[in-house]
Write a structure and sequence with these properties.
The structure holds 2 protein chains of 2 kinds. The longest helix of chain A is centred in the middle third of the chain and has 15 residues. The mean pLDDT of chain A is 88. Chain A is elongated. In chain A, helix 6 packs across helix 8. By secondary structure, chain A is an alpha/beta fold. Chain A has 2 domains: 118 residues, 3-Layer(aba) Sandwich (Rossmann fold); 97 residues, Arc Repressor Mutant, subunit A, CATH 1.10.10.10. Chain A is built from 8 helices and 12 strands. Chain B has 3 domains: 135 residues, no CATH class; 87 residues; 145 residues, Histidine kinase-like ATPase, C-terminal domain (Heat Shock Protein 90). Chain B is 53% helix and 21% strand. Chain B has a 5-stranded antiparallel β-sheet with strand order 1-2-5-4-3. The longest helix of chain B is centred in the first third of the chain and has 54 residues. The radius of gyration of chain B is 49 Å and the shape is rod-shaped. Classes of the chains: A alpha/beta, B alpha+beta. At the A-B interface, helix 1, helix 7 and helix 8 of A face helix 3, helix 4, helix 5, helix 6 and helix 7 of B.
């Protein structure tokens, strides 16, 4: 998977490149619009992460350029300005998704996968673990043929853990994924613990052994 | 009351007053004038008679001897002239009303009496005009005057009305344009075509002031955008760097806990920046109000979203919407945030076994949505400050940034929702949102 990161902020680009490389993406970086424009004309990227606020270029112009490419790369807009007009305009111009900064790298990866699945119409949307199956197209979790009844939040939580299996997810990362779109007064990690407890209880009769590790003072890790 | 109505009313009232005054004053006035005219005429006639007497000699009218007199009156007894000899020493020169008997009929006359002497003889001249005739002419005069008055009053009233309307048209135009402005951003300066300098000045002033407001709004929008970018970019870098460190297998375990602490602190910073940006963006009118929002659906969505938190804290959450109602124009995601924050507080500052009720009903021509809890309550001296930014009332965890309720208030104001809070410490708090125009 070949990704172009268009980002004028060097430190941020570095973190993105580091993270995506670890996840086995092949990354190119363009620090300005001209560079990006040249790169997309030459290389066949599968994915373009586009910061709209570029020093030399209108990000939306670049978006239009990328839209005209024949192989139709997936485009995800990343921006810290976050004005509503910009967001609507970006999506109208054909971006596949929009992620306001600051975002979690895990959220970025989840969104990228969702975009790719949608874009390339991946049939198999089933994730398997410990004999259980999670189907993200129908939002169902089942054991053999038995459906396990999960609340919306429990499902979202399990899906996120599974997408980032074998990695420690902090309570904050999980909270942001579940309630991230709601701006609230404070952050209470207890609610995540309650959901995890319920999730463990519901899956206990189907999964033998430890499938979810609690990392003391840090968070949770789904083991596979 | 509108200026035009006031002017019209005033002009109509002043005309009616003038009219009434004239009706009162006119009869005595006309009477006086008519009398004056009659007297003038009598005096003129006197001069004429005296001249004729001088020319023709008194002998032509009065024969020598006693009790001789001359009299003349016209057929309808409107006027008479009489000349007679009177004893010497009598002297009269007056005009007054008196009754005279003419052909067995007593008639009220205005009579000029004058004595004069010719050849040592004294004569009395009397010229009379019947009062009835005078009164008749007075009546006719009065009638014409009244008709004329009515016509003038009505005519000028209509002319005034039309003139006021034309004169005030530019003002109505300015007012109509101002009424259409929901937000300074939608104002478009327009020239006014009128010869009234005051209105042109008013219009130009409004145009220039609105221009300044618009410029300030635009500047603020730009500033918010810049602040957003400049503050969120470093936060973004830090957040992603910490995530990479957390994911790095070479990071020692004891540092992971520290990293999680850092993540929390950074999250707090991020929340503050985002909350302040949200408030500024709402105040800068960057959000649209173009969705019809069903209050029942909204309340149920919030309850659905938050129910697990209530369960986690063993708080019973109920929704009772008695009357269904739709807010014609609003921003759903903002209203969701508003309601979510209040309900979240109601759950957070509650006790196990407590209750949170979301109730909606039509009250006094407005829709009222109340969130009632049986929580710890707010002390009376703290109530006035709960919407102040950065005031943390409870915050036992120290994670709260104190911007939750200011956000709630800002969103309510943006939608012209009246927000009231009642609280009894130890018993609970009630937040009520009164939506306009139900």
């Amino acid at each position: 998977m070949h990704v172009l990161i268009v980002e004028d902020e060097v430190s941020l680009a570095k973190e993105l490149v580091h993270f995506l490389s670890q996840e086995h993406y092949k990354c190119d970086w363009a620090a300005n619009g001209r560079d990006a424009s040249e790169k997309i004309a030459v290389n066949l990227y599968d994915f373009i992460l586009l910061d709209l606020g570029l020093p030399d270029y209108n990000g939306l112009t670049l978006l239009q350029e990328a839209r005209q490419l024949e192989h139709e790369p997936a485009i995800l807009i990343l921006t810290a300005r976050g004005s509503l007009e910009e967001r609507i305009e970006g999506l109208d111009l054909g971006a596949d998704d929009y992620l306001p900064k600051p975002f979690s790298l895990l959220e970025l990866q989840a969104r990228m996968q969702a975009v790719l699945r949608r874009k390339f119409k991946v049939k198999s949307s089933v994730l398997a673990f410990h004999g259980l199956e999670l189907d993200s197209s129908t939002r169902r979790v089942s054991y053999q043929d038995t459906e396990i009844n999960l609340t919306k939040k429990e499902y979202d939580l399990l899906h996120y853990l599974l997408l980032h299996k074998n990695r420690i997810l902090t309570r904050l990362q999980l909270t942001e994924h579940i309630w991230g779109n709601i701006l609230e007064d404070d952050y209470d990690s207890n609610y995540i613990d309650v959901h995890i407890k319920n999730l463990r209880k519901k899956l206990a009769s189907y999964v033998s052994g430890e499938w979810l590790e609690t990392v003391r003072g840090v968070g949770y890790r789904l083991i596979q | 009351m509108r200026l035009q109505s006031k002017l019209t009313l005033f002009s109509a009232a002043s005309k009616i007053i003038i009219f009434l005054l004239l009706v009162l004053v006119l009869p005595p006035l006309i009477h006086k004038v008519a009398l004056h005219n009659t007297d003038e005429r009598l005096l003129q006639k006197k001069e004429q008679v005296l001249r004729i007497v001088e020319e023709q000699g008194i002998g032509n009218f009065i024969a020598e001897g006693d009790n001789s007199a001359y009299g003349s009156y016209n057929l309808l007894k409107e006027e008479f002239i009489s000349l007679e000899q009177v004893p010497a020493g009598q002297e009269v020169n007056s005009i007054e009303n008196s009754l005279r008997k003419v052909e067995d009929e007593v008639v009220d006359y205005r009579v000029l009496s004058l004595t004069f002497q010719i050849d040592d003889q004294t004569y009395l001249l009397e010229i009379g005009r019947s009062i009835a005739t005078i009164r008749e002419s007075i009546d006719i005069l009065q009638q014409y005057a009244l008709i004329f008055l009515v016509v003038v009053v009505v005519l000028t009233a209509f002319v005034d009305l039309a003139f006021n309307k034309i004169l005030l048209r530019p003002l109505s135009l300015i007012i109509r344009r101002l009424q259409r402005i929901g937000h300074p951003g939608t104002f478009q300066p327009k020239q006014l075509h009128t010869s009234t300098k005051d209105f042109i000045y008013l219009n130009d002033t409004i145009n220039s002031m609105m221009g300044q407001v618009q410029a300030a709004f635009l500047k603020e929008k730009e500033f918010i955008g810049n602040v957003s970018h400049e503050l969120l970019t470093p936060i973004s870098i830090l957040q992603n760097r910490m995530e990479n460190l957390l994911a790095d297998p070479e990071t020692p375990e004891h540092l992971l806990v520290k990293l999680v602490d850092n993540q929390r602190t950074l999250h707090r910073l991020k929340s503050i920046v985002q909350a302040l940006l949200l408030i500024s963006r709402i105040e800068n009118e960057q959000y649209l109000k173009n969705e019809a929002i069903d209050i029942k659906t909204l309340a149920e969505e919030v309850a659905e979203e938050i129910r697990d938190r209530a369960e986690a804290r063993e708080v019973e959450l109920s929704v009772a919407i008695a009357d269904d109602w739709t807010l014609p124009q609003g921003n759903e995601s903002l209203l969701f945030t508003m309601l979510f924050n209040v309900v979240n507080n109601a759950i957070k500052y509650n006790r196990p076994g407590g209750k949170v009720m979301i109730e909606g009903r039509v009250m006094d021509k407005a829709y009222e949505l109340c969130i009632i809890d049986t929580g710890v309550g707010i002390a009376a001296e703290q109530l006035p400050h709960i919407f102040s930014r950065f005031k943390r009332l409870h915050a036992p965890d120290g994670e709260s940034h104190g911007l939750g309720l200011p956000i709630v208030q800002t969103i309510a104001q943006f939608h012209r929702i009246k927000l009231t809070v009642d609280s009894v410490p130890g018993a609970g708090t009630t937040f009520c949102f009164r939506f306009p125009g139900a």
